[in-house]
Amino acid sequence: MKPGNIIIFLLICTLNLYSQNIKINGYIISASSGEPIINAHIISNGMDKHSISNTSGFFSLSLAEGKNALQISHVAYQPALVTVNTKKDTAITIELLSLQLGEIEVYGEEPLHRQTLSGKISISPQKIEFIPTFVGEPDIIKAITYLPGVSGNNKGFSNLYVRGGDRQNNLLLLDGAPVYSLNHLFGILSVFNADIIKNIDFYKGGFPARYGGRTSSVVDITTRRGNNKKLTGKFNIGILKSKLLLEGPVVNQRTSFILALRSSYLDLFTLPFRNKYKKGNPHVNFLGYTFYDINAKVTREINEKSQIFVNLYKGTDIQKVYDKAQNTFQYRNSAYEYKQENQSATIGLQSLLNSDLYFNTSVIYSKYGNRFEMTDEIIDYIDSSAVIEKSHSYINSLTCNISFDYTQFNNHKIKTGGSISLYKIQPGVSSRKSDIYFNHFDTTYNVSVEKKATEYNLYIEDEIAITNKLNINAGVRLNIFNSNYTHINPEPRISIRWLAGENISFKTGYSIMHQYMHLIESNIQGTGNELWVGSNKNTPPQKASLFSGGIFGKISHIEYGFEAFYKNMENLIYFNYIDADEDFICKWDNMILKDGKGRAYGFEALIKYKSKKFISSLSYTLAKNDRKFSDYNFNKWFPFSHDRRHDLTFLLHYILNEKNTVGINFVFNTGEPITLPEAYIPTNRYFNGYLSYNDINNMRLPAYHRLDISYKRNTKTKKGRKSYWSINLYNAYARRNPVYVYYDKDKVISKSLYSIIPSFNWGMEF
Amino acid sequence: MININKNQFICFICCIFIFQTLFSGCEIEKEIDYNALYGGDKMVIHGFLHNKGAFLQLNKTVPPLSRDKNDYISNAKVSLYSGNEQAVELIEHTPGYFETPCDFKPTDNTTYQIVAEAEGFSKVFSSKQIIMSPVLIDTAYYIKETPTSKMFDLYFSYTDPSTEENYYFYKILYFTEGIIENENDYIEYIDPFSWYSDDEFNGTRRTEYILYYEGRKDTPDIDSARIILYTLSNDLKKYLESIENYDTTKEDPFYEQPAQIFTNIINGYGIFAGLAVDSITLSLR
Questions:
Q1: Which of A641, A657, A687 to mutate against chain B (most B CBs within 10 Å)?
Q2: CB contact under 8 A, B26 and A692
Q3: Residues contacting residue B77 through CB under 8 Å, at least 6 positions apart
Q4: Which of A96, A273, B36, B246 is most exposed, with the fewest beta carbons within 10 Å of its own?
């Protein structure tokens, strides 16, 4: 029997299990703020029925008529027991109390072995808060890199490389809006402000059919709707940045808002130099950098069953370099400015149409762009020259989403929906005007090529409880992408979980993913210029097929998961900057390599220990990750730049008492691959001598390891407001990890950039 | 728990900032020994096949950190093969420089490959190369501003075959009473930045223009110029392209990956490629 037929057969079998039970549905909300609680677990007496609240806090359970006890738990809230006596379908709202300081909810998370999806991990922002970071700012991207199968960047930047994928292969959704660039300050911080985040669902495999468009992972971030009971806020002051959060009801408790602002103040340090520059001081040079982001959300409850929200996000980075010098013979004035910006706006409606049908729709506008401007003016006693170079690139998308969650049948949770996206993609608008010497040698040029594309998606997925032990999440997604050519790609997805015992399960999953948007990044280190381009006739979508399987379980307070995976990748792209010229933005699809193949496979282990006072986790990945391009490395396989044979992370969060907590993070991984010459070809009568690099990434930097420690003390002000201060020691034992190599005559030198980095933060809630 | 007062706390924070200033900017450098990657000496061939025969330079690789090491291979045997048959053995004229004998003339439309052997080395082969037909210079002339001027414009024209993609490279040799004036540009050195393709003039007649200007008053007048037009095989174009990339990136520490040099030598390094040559001498008097 074909696999498709088996699925249909199982579906038919399970439909027969439909019976006339009573439906209990409703919302789980926070007692203190009225905020919906995501991923709360609602378990009926006898543990036979189980539901998880969705992004609106909505849940639905089918129970037998009569008295039923419901146990509700969440990692950040006190557990609750609710008894319902029902004779007909009932809607209820359950309020949960927040945990007190110094407490950890041990049973609040869905255990890994219970989840049907093998590659899903839900992360609550409370957990991230205690992970020591680079400058003491909670960073969700860095927190994700500590999970097995995920590696980050050894330079301290916020990048994700998941199961052999590149950083462009991750779908980052902020309330459904795609975020194209995830870095502030060259990657030292991620663009996501942890204060506004309610929940993060991270998928590295067994992707449900509702997600698509990237080939490696999904990071689905849901933001908070704001406290609808009272006006509250908090602020935080750190070394690099400060932030402010305000939230509260608007007019009445049916409408709430949340506003989060975050900004750096590195520019303040160069303010005197900037003033000098503006005043025309002839000898000034300075570097300026600033970033800020704004998150704002307003949510309105239309009635008990429906709510509408508007969400706005803007994140900007601006880098400036000014250099002015004058002497007797020459005057020189150079200025350089680079600006990068992410923006999104979402309007969404969520509604419970009837007790079995939950409806969700949204219209999303998202934009990523960067802009570069350089002027260079030189005047001396003979000649003068002035060059102005400008370029910018962007990707805009407008998406309409619609989705339905259908729970009519007892053992089925059906999700279906679709979306239409319109893209405007501008790889680059570039202009250069030079006026060199008195003969006015003018080389003005302008290039602009905006492309339009349309993407249609349809999906259906069903989580089927075939028996009490066997669960399947099966689905299919159909993508149609049209630019100057139409790509049609169906994507089957399946995850199977078999509960072998009360606390042990086996899982497997298979999924195919396509990616129509490609990130072309300059491989010149440090410049970080990013251009997004769409698939066309010459550039097919990137494709990945992932198979994974493993064993998951729980022994007392220890939870474990061991999983193996194999990922096959096709149509990968690589841009070799050497090949670029000024026509690049017009002819990028002729200049990039796009027939790349990739293969990644490995073994992952996750062991978590949780008690009332501390949480610890140990993640280990053993993996191999290779690439092959027909016109690169002589058509041979080579290790991908982010290949790590071993990757180990140990996290510890220890609550000393109500006031004091300690976080420890230890990271060890195999050094980054680098390319070094294997021979020197001597000078001959036709050509100069050269170094031969027969194999890309043929050596590795020494192993990378680092220990980070954080200490946080909660205090109260004289007026009784909560405040805290924290100290972070990043790289606490001052390990000199080499981060790059450079050539100095005949020598190759590895260089480490930083040693121990202490940081301090102070914050207060009001 | 440790109890600290306000002043101690402020001191502590100040210490952290000082600590940060002192340590976080520290850089440390360490040399990487990469001689271990050297897999032993291998043969290196740089040579060409054209309608009058083959010529090449044979060397051996040296470890990347010992570039001054002797690269000469003694007692090497270099042969030109046509199919599986040895067509001719090349003669070593000067140490490491080999040429086909004067009486050997390659046959048109036949593929040839170089095979080199030496004691202590793996036998090396080149990929098969075909004798290329030269693209002929049909016209050459010059324009002087005045009869005594040392500045003149030199023109030459040729017709690009439309059937295939072609790659070119040209040189101008200037003579004064039979002696080469621009000696540095002698035929044996090939500038990897000077090749070009027929992308923009495929199948059409092309005229190249060169400005000659000699500013020094004591320079004797140029009396003739030889224009040499090379038509390059695909392998040679790939090789020059990779050398060009290498030269562009070798001094730049910011390139993530170094440029790899193309080779068509199996078990060794270098290039043995087809090349067609046409030249014309122009009297400037």
A1: A687
A2: no
A3: B89, B116, B117, B118
A4: B36
Position B30 pLDDT exceeds 50: yes
Rounded to whole angstroms, how far apart are CA atoms A114 and A495?
A: 13
Tens digit of pLDDT for each residue in A246-300? Answer: 999 988 778 999 999 999 887 777 777 777 777 777 677 777 888 999 999 999 9
Which residues, 6+ apart, have CB-to-CB distance to B11 below 8 Å?
A: none
Determine contact: A698 vs chain B, CB below 8 A.
Answer: yes
- A196-205 pLDDT, tens digit per residue, is 998 899 999 8
CA–CA min distance A89, chain B (Å):
54
**Secondary element (H or E) of residue A43:** strand A41-44
**DSSP one-letter string for A491-525:** EEEEEEEEEEETTEEEEEEEEEEEE-EEEEE--BT
Which chain A residues touch B54 with a CB distance below 8 Å? none
Look at B64 and A691 and tell me if their CB atoms are within 8 Å: yes
Residue A302 touches partner B, C-beta closer than 8 Å? no
Residue A148 and residue A144: Cα distance in Å, rounded? Answer: 9
Q: Is A202 helix (H, G, I), strand (E, B) or coil?
A: strand
Q: Are A551 and A506 in contact (CB under 8 A)?
A: yes
Instruction: Tell me the shortest Cα–Cα distance from A504 to chain B, in angstroms.
Output: 41
Instruction: Give the CA diameter of chain B.
Output: 100
- The answer to whether A634 contacts chain B (CB < 8 Å) is yes
Nearest CA to A740 out of B145, B167, B253 is that of: B253
Write the DSSP symbol of residue B108. Answer: T
- The SS3 call for residue A47 is helix
Note whether B64 contacts A685, CB cutoff 8 Å: no
Contact A680 B34 (CB under 8 A): no
Q: Quick one: DSSP state of residue B255?
A: B
Taking the model in full, what pTM does it have?
0.85
| Whole-angstrom distance, CA of residue B140 vs CA of residue B225 | 10
Interface predicted TM-score (ipTM): 0.86
Sheet holding A740-744, edge to edge: A740-744, A747-752, B28-32
Q: Do B29 and A734 touch (CB under 8 A)?
A: no
Mean pLDDT of A501-513: 94
